[in-house]
Design goal:
Layout lengths: L1 H5 L1 H6 L2 H11 L4 H5 L1 H13 L4 H22 L1 H9 L10 H4 L7 H6 L14 E6 L7 E6 L2 H13 L10 E4 L6 E2 L2 E6 L4 E4 L6 H13 L3 E5 L1 H13 L7 E6 L6 H11 L2 E6 L8 E2 L7 E3 L4 E6 L12 E8 L10 E11 L11 E6 L6 E3 L5 E3 H4 L9 E10 L2 E8 L5 H15 L4 E6 L14 E3 L6
Parallel strand pairs: 3-6, 3-7, 7-8, 8-9, 18-21, 19-20
Antiparallel strand pairs: 1-2, 4-5, 5-6, 9-10, 10-11, 11-15, 12-13, 13-14, 14-15, 16-17, 18-19
Helix pairs in contact: 5-10, 6-7, 12-13
Bound molecules: zinc ion (ZN).
The site of zinc ion (ZN) has 8 residues, from loops.
């Protein structure tokens, strides 16, 4: 079971009948034991870190940073070259201020040096290869520990607990999952995690009506969602005059959260909206506390710096900076002072409501902006649901959807060396597999993908007016 959880896709690919059998057999074992030892150990660490003083937070982070930096310098040729050419003497690294002298890295540094950044053999069984679209449209490729899902899940659960959630509580999930389709209903059930999945690739009025009818039958459930998907569902529920009294909280991740949308969703579902921040690179993560919707950065997960355009640390409340992360979880390929491309407002080093000595930030943005494709029936499909974390975009430097007709889209790709027809066919079949005919996708190779006037690249060059 541990394997099935750490290699999540295996579990997702398991036929439902086996899942049901496994669910019955395993239901006598407490879920925290099924998930694994790393989950339980991480939970203990999180609870301890909740009570740390500022000095204890600093000491823990300094020790972890030293480990990562020393390993990186001694074992990764790319880091050795980077620090040597910047004139950095790693042996004189004693304090956090020494760490802040290290050069920043970005996506290009990782992509250009992927084989020069490994601490272990990339072919080991406990190493995963990940590709992600990130925010700029240029895919990022990297290696990471296969066991990270257990650690990640411990953080999610500890965050959700602040809304009253307990491991094993019923969840209704509206995220990027391809579900079964029975009698026209796009829905699946995972008996182990007690999760009901609905397809946010299918959001016609009829689909949403059936999701809502099912959600209303669930006792004391939690909705685990993409912000854009739940906003769409809430808008629909409102137009149909549907109210809820059984939803305990909305648990949202993976997209920007807009305060108007949050307030609207809270009013429709009559419960709290709780948001977490994280990313596939697993460098830093944050979640709201019991009393505040500001993000509390988890101190034992990674080291988060908020830096201005000159690379200086932001210390004034209300100032905006880029999130630069150094992860503690990835011990396969260290990311040290990595520019995430995400931005946030600095709040402080302490929450006076919950009394945690954690870095507090708010209004995180830029991470997977909400962008949509328009399906044949004019319903919207969130870009985040299409985002591929596998080998779909291998040998592609940059990609972008272009759409001017509902139900039809073109993926423009700027290709790198080694791109071949097999790569092209894989893009078409993987994307069309996810979209299940709601949007027909074709691929064209281009020399360049234009940036917006702010120098950003967008995932969906959307020419259909979807603002109404
Ligand atoms: Zn707090």
């Amino acid at each position: 079971m541990k394997k099935a959880f750490s290699k999540k896709n295996l579990w997702e690919a398991t036929p439902p009948v086996f899942k049901k059998l496994a669910g019955l057999t395993l239901s006598v074992v407490p879920l925290e034991y099924l998930i694994g030892r790393k989950f339980r150990e991480t939970t203990k660490l999180i609870l301890a870190a909740d009570k740390w003083t500022k000095d204890e937070v600093d000491a823990y982070q300094l020790e972890k940073l030293k480990q990562q930096v020393c390993n990186a310098y001694n074992k990764c040729p790319a880091y050795k070259k980077l620090y040597d050419s910047a004139g950095i003497d790693i042996s004189s690294f004693y304090k956090l201020s020494d760490f802040k002298k290290l050069p920043l890295i970005d996506k290009a540094f990782i992509n250009d040096n992927i084989d020069g950044l490994l601490l272990v053999d990339k072919n080991s069984a406990d190493v995963d290869y990940v590709t992600t679209g990130g925010t700029s449209g240029v895919p990022l490729h990297f290696y990471i520990n296969a066991g990270r899902s257990q650690i990640e899940y411990a953080y999610l659960v500890e965050g959700w607990r602040k809304t009253g959630f307990k491991l094993g509580d019923i969840k209704a999930v509206l995220r990027g999952r391809v579900t079964d389709t029975k009698a026209g209903v796009h829905q699946s059930y995972d008996p182990i995690f007690n999760e009901h999945y609905y397809s946010n690739f299918h959001m016609s009025n009829g689909d949403m009506r059936s999701y809502i009818a099912h959600i209303k039958t669930l006792k004391n459930c939690f909705l685990h969602v993409y912000p854009s998907s739940i906003y769409q569902l809430a808008r629909f529920a409102k137009t149909e005059n549907i109210s809820f009294d059984n939803v305990q909280a909305i648990l949202a991740e993976s997209e920007n959260v807009y305060s108007e949308q949050r307030a609207f969703v809270e009013s429709v579902f009559n419960c709290r909206y709780y948001s977490s921040y994280g990313h596939s690179e697993k460098l830093v993560a944050a979640g709201e506390c019991e009393y505040s919707s500001n993000y509390h950065v988890w101190p034992a997960y990674g080291y988060l710096e908020l830096l201005d355009e000159d690379g200086d640390e932001i210390t004034q409340k209300g100032q905006v900076g880029e999130i630069v992360g150094t992860g503690f979880i990835n011990t396969v390929m260290p990311f040290i002072r990595y520019k995430t491309g995400d931005f946030a407002d600095y709040v402080g080093q302490f929450c006076d409501k919950c009394k945690r000595n954690h870095l507090i930030i708010k209004d995180i943005r830029g991470h997977r902006v909400q962008e949509h494709l328009v399906a044949k029936d004019h319903s919207l499909i969130s870009w985040t649901a299409v985002n591929m974390h596998d080998d779909t975009f291998d040998n592609v430097l940059q990609y972008q959807f272009y759409q001017d007709t509902p139900g039809v889209a073109v993926i423009k790709i700027k290709t790198g060396n080694g791109f071949n027809d097999e790569n092209k066919q894989r893009i078409i079949s993987n994307i069309n597999g996810k979209l299940q005919g709601r949007v027909e996708v074709s691929v064209i190779q281009v020399d360049d993908i234009q940036l917006t006037e702010r120098g950003k690249s967008v995932f969906v060059d959307q020419r259909i007016n979807i603002s109404s």
